[in-house]
Amino acid sequence: MPLLPRRTSRNWRAALAATLTTGLAALSLPLATTATAVPAGAPVAESATGTYLVTLADEPLVTYDGGVGDLPATKPAHGGKFDVASAAARRYRSHLTDQQDRVAKKVGASVRQHYAVTTNTFSARLDARQLVRLAHTGSVVHIAPDRFHQATDDRNSTDFLGLSGRKGLWKAFGGTAEVGKGIVIGDIDTGIWPENPSFHAPALTSHKPGKKDPHRPYRSGATTLMHKADGGAFKGTCQTGDSFTAAACNEKVISARYFGEGWLDAVPESNRAGYVSPRDSQGHGTHTASTAAGNANVRATVGGEDLGTVSGVAPAATIAVYKALWQSRDGQQDGGLTSDLVAAIDQAVADGVDVINYSLGATFESAYNDPAQVALRNAAAAGVFVATAAGNSGPGASSLSNTAPWTTTVAAGTIKAHTGTVALGNGARHTGISTTVHRQVGPAPLVLGSAVRVSDTVDIYADYCMPDSLDPARTAGKIVVCERGVNGRADKSAEVKRAGGIGLVLVNSGDESTDGDLHSVPAVHLDKAEAAPVRTYAATSGATATLTEGGASGVYPQVAGFSSRGPSLVGNGDLLKPDITAPGATILAAVSPDGNHGRDFDYYSGTSMATPHIAGLAALYLTEHPTWSPMSIKSAMMTTATPTKTADGKNSDDAFAQGAGEVDARAMLRPGLVYDSGERDWLAYLEGSGVDTGTGVEAIDPSDLNYPSIAVGDLFGQQTITRTVTATAAGTYRARASVPGVKATVSPSVLHFSHPGQKRTFTVTLDVTTAPAGRAATGSLTWTSGRTTVRSPIVVTPQTVRAPTEIKGSGSSGSTGFSVTPATSTLTATAYGPVSSPVTKGTLTQMQEIYYDTEIPSGTKASQITVHFDAAEDTITGLLWGNKVDGVLQDVQIAVPDSDGTITLTVRHPTADALFVSLVAMGADSETVTPYTYQVNHITADSPVTGRVAVTPERARVTPGKPTDLTATWSGVPADTRSGAWIDYGNGAGSFLTLN
User: Fold this and answer.
1) Per-residue pLDDT tens over the stretch 615-635
2) pTM of the entire predicted model
3) Which is the catalytic residue, given 608, 863, 918, 991?
């Protein structure tokens, strides 16, 4: 598609705004200082210049169904498999890469990486001017900065899931040698340590498999081939590199590749650690791969201690490794860049994996059009089941990472804990988590870290048992109490050991998880409640303690404290995330000895550990149903899940923590009914969510996506939801729906199915009765047929009012009327402001980029940035802006002026620490000078005001659902400068009043 013609008047801005105002994903760049403009000569690292991923309009290979010239479709037929080696795929791929080269060349850029299988995207190093010009290009649909992603870090999880044992699920499948056979799990992570016993298998040979072993992988030259259970073929390779030869692969690890072009370019060689190869230097990838598909009944020993046996969830499945997460020496640049992750996803689908395990995430929730999420969407469209980690930022609300509907988002749950007890000298006993107390330690003196610190260290440093903070002369022979936080948990026990201590009591000060780390000395980790009396007692003279193995285990499964919670901000509450919970706390599995003190096995905790349990269960499912769609498998898992527990042993109803609940490995295989969806459904959902897919697919209400759960983020009075179910067995199902404070009506309430595969559509009408506004109400819909139950969680948030997002007025005084529709019988409207901050004036030249940071005050209700360009007719202007947290830019968006040359950005209830804005002007020549003004107004409850704003009536009795007229009045505001005010209706609802 050719570039849009360059316009010679400002009228182009209105048309350009639709394509240029593009939501971008998170970015990690050092930026300017607060509220100051930065000279044009500043280093490029301190600007918007960087590597970006540019997505073009044409479909990628896995979803292209024809229509471009004489190029035939490459999208697989329904139930078919994508073939990257076909003549049609090769021709269309060449078309896409040529197109990408042309678009980059138009703005003077060079393509660094091409992506064509799951996304039509290229990466390139771009500055702000090139970004604005690309956004002016009609074939460009999305631009995202290349940002960092990090790994999300019964006592045996396979026992807990009911897989092992004489009556376990593995037995029903014919034993561990059959579970997962013919299935390939692609693990996108930190690589693998192939020598671990969890991956021992016969070497790959060129001998082709026979009828007795049709799924045995074999080599053809440098290519690994495997005939899969679904009738398709896997084609991979064992990529060589640092300490990794082709012999590292075998009949278990059948392929291994690495993707680091972006990361290796971004991170200087002096700060790189690990191996430039598929080899894992950290342990995370080895842990996730072995959890999903490691060998069965592998004996795990550490330091001479027998920790029992470990098994992968699908022990007969094969593993394809896609290393895209890397290790830096200082730890500050650990992780992977979007460009490398997209390359890994692209290759995994091209190779022919059946399942992708994606145990990683970003600092902020990823947008649906983030390049990696788009690639995962098209992977799912190609029939690949994708399991993603929910994130480890819990228990705070809306802390999720991967929330797209085409992936299965996994929360972390607890299993039966490894426990240890701290017996105090005063007779009290406190039980916590321990994997290292195997025999009694003590009685011995019990001390706080600060009581045995070195003389030149402050108390708080020693209380956290930081490196070199403890005095060996004072610590030897003692059990030390160390505070959680600041440094790594295992680093604290290493410091205690260095100083001669014989034991550790690790204490929480907040509502954090307790973890079964393998410590350097015997250790017990106590939660906040158990820690408080131990901390107090340890501060007394003559305190002693004894550490012993065992003690009462807490209630399980609970959602772990670290597991990220919903609601999804990207989904606006109309899609419930996470989807499901799986074991993710204190999981023992294989690791890399390089990153784990020489150990071959270790206990890890995180949603990263929960995710491969679901990936492995998907492989197990595909063993029995190799042609089922990814969403049917997800539905089967979700609708048969069981509630997790609260701390007091009751069933939890916190859907934002557990999703549908804890996965039930046996029940999921007989779901009765499934809620299926595919590519077209997801595109309709995206359109309904405000994402322009460029496909022409008609939008649906996001709540109507055919999903196994029901969510309405804005339930205003009444809403009817539509779903379609597909039977997996004949039967008659009867509905029961219940949501506290909401009347739920299912129609029809009885569904009859005469044979598997039959579909039925029904509606659920939700009508608010007594549920409080602005607070989520949780219930469920259950279909029952005999002993089969199909349960879907329901989460709705009744809203108080529907009001305009922005109200405009002009003049130093005046008034304007507007209408709101309340959902309750009482309406309140409170005005805050008006605020009119000083205006900054400046000029931009052709080669200049000026950027600002502005701190967001605590308690800000809304922030508004106003930029006005006094530009010449043929000058292109625009800006990049985003949110910063802890000094790091989390997202970037592009905006262009209106017909008057003004850009107005309004951020409601900002959650960031600061806003970043970069201004750009591109004139006809280097002599062009563009004057501009810049202003930021933050509205808080106690902002200094300029003038007065009032709303009438402030409080009124109203009829729910009936529009009510209000009037905003202002006086004393400057007529020649923009002012802003916030009109608050309670429960977070509000309108921004823009004046002048």
Assistant:
1) 999 999 999 999 999 999 999
2) 0.80
3) 608
